[in-house]
Amino acid sequence: MSSIADNVAEADTEHPLLDTNDTKFNGKDNELRWYATLRFRLIISVALVHAILMGAFIWDAVTEQSNSIRAELQNRGHALSSLMAVATTNALLAEDLASLAEVITRIRNQPDVAYGEVLDAQGNILASTDATRVGQRIVPQIMVSDKMPLSANDHVLDLREHIHVAGRDVGSVFLGLSTDNLDKALAATRNEGLLFILFALVIGSLAAGALSFATTRNLHAMTMAVRRLTSGDLNVRVTAKGHDEVGLLARAFNTMVASLQRSSRQVKMEHEKRTEAERLACVGELSASIAHEIRNPLSAIINSVNLLARGDLQADDQKQVTHIVNAESERLQRILNDFLTFSRIPHSDMQTIELCHLIRDTVILLSNDPELPDNVKVETHLPATSCMGRMDKDQIRQVLMNLIMNGVQAMPDGGTLSIEVVSESDKLSVRIIDDGIGIPDSLVEKVIRPFVTGRKNGTGLGLSIVQRILMQHGTKLDIVSHPDTGTEMSFSLQAA
Ligand SMILES: Nc1ncnc2c1ncn2[C@@H]1O[C@H](COP(=O)(O)OP(=O)(O)OP(=O)(O)O)[C@@H](O)[C@H]1O
Ligand SMILES: [Mg+2]
User: Fold this and answer.
1) Mind listing the pLDDT tens digit for each residue in 273-302?
2) CATH number of 261-343, picked from 1.10.287.130, 1.25.40.10, 3.40.50.300, 3.40.50.10860
3) Which homologous superfamily does the CATH classification assign to the domain defined by 345-494?
4) Nearest Cα to 416, choosing from 381, 371, 460?
5) 426 C-alpha vs ligand 2 centroid, how far in Å?
6) What are all long-range contacts of 149-155, with beta carbons under 8 Å and residues at least 24 apart?
7) Structure pTM?
8) Residue nearest to atom 4 of ligand 1 (CA)
9) Ligand 1 midpoint to CA 430 (Å)
10) Kindly report the CA angle at 300 between 456 and 304, in degrees rounded to 5?
């Protein structure tokens, strides 16, 4: 007997394209209950049908056999009582008690005889197998029936026969045959029948078990295969046995999985091709952006160095050109530093952090920054209760700094920058709102891309860094901005 595991072909890979969330087999609905299995129902129904049919057949045979044994006993009884009547007629007429006693003795020696009696016409017992009854008189009522068993409950078949001579009733004979042997024979036949039914039940169950196993083995193998398929294993196959409906279903299943595997391979290849093309396009775009960003400061530096190399500059001009070289070199350095930060954002080290403390510390840090203009007011609206969240502390501080600095830079004429935290059931929502110049509609979608800037000295990497960090935290930046009214930048973090 092969195991289910043998029927499911081995496989060692999972496929990411299969959706395994909707179709988990772990729920209670998918647990196998033995009493509800096809196998159990088949065994029970086949065994029952078998037992009922065999039972009916055996019952019929037992009844028939018992009737024939009973009829045989009755016939023997009637023959014996008739014989007794013939043998006693003359003795009765002659009132020869000795002959009657002799007949009774012979009758007693016959098998199954329980009693035998000879009565005269008045009901007086003239001879009996029970000597104490000789001389007694039988009550007339019980002498009414003729050739009928008098009682069926005392394990004795009672028979009586009247003796008529020339139309005159001269007496009667009573005979009782013991039914013990008959009862024993019937009980033996019944027991044999029960044994046969039991045997039929066992044979029926075994046959049903074999039948149900043959029917359901492919179903079990298929259930296991479907489970593996839903967990993403496209290499799974069922070893389809037999040419019944389930065997055909198993083969159809294999064909379906093979076709699914082919399509999945195709989709995967196309996905890889597209990803590669997108990656190349992205690298090209990024290289172009970097080249574009560093070209201006680099040209300024080259021109300035050429001027200085000529050696004919006045002292003031020389000072100014040197200043340009310094400023543009610093700009170049800033671009490269920001780009390195952007491209090397480390893996987020998630910890449980009090976000409100982090925001207060960041605001204090920024308020001491000389770059923060006096005409910008920074407000915080934080929950009174603690706001614990899961985050990488340094990275979220960087996010806050970048967003706050952008807000401050968007308010050259001063304004209010507000930082709000709302604690919801499983998340902390953070909003940074300024009433600055806002972002032009054409730029809103693009500002999170690298090197997209609307500021003269900006590198355009601040929001790209923010977006990448938030993505590592499983969230993203939402931007709502209206030119001249201000900007709202928001994101949420997982509460702890
Ligand atoms: N709060 C804001 N209000 C208005 N414009 C904004 C705001 N935040 C971002 N922007 C616009 O989006 C652009 C991109 O911002 P980002 O932070 O990515 O780069 P940056 O600020 O230009 O340079 P840096 O790399 O120094 O941050 C900004 O140049 C600015 O035009
Ligand atoms: Mg910025």
Assistant:
1) 998 998 888 788 778 878 888 888 899 999
2) 1.10.287.130
3) Histidine kinase-like ATPase, C-terminal domain (3.30.565.10)
4) 381
5) 30
6) 149/74, 155/179, 155/180, 155/183
7) 0.50
8) 438
9) 18
10) 140
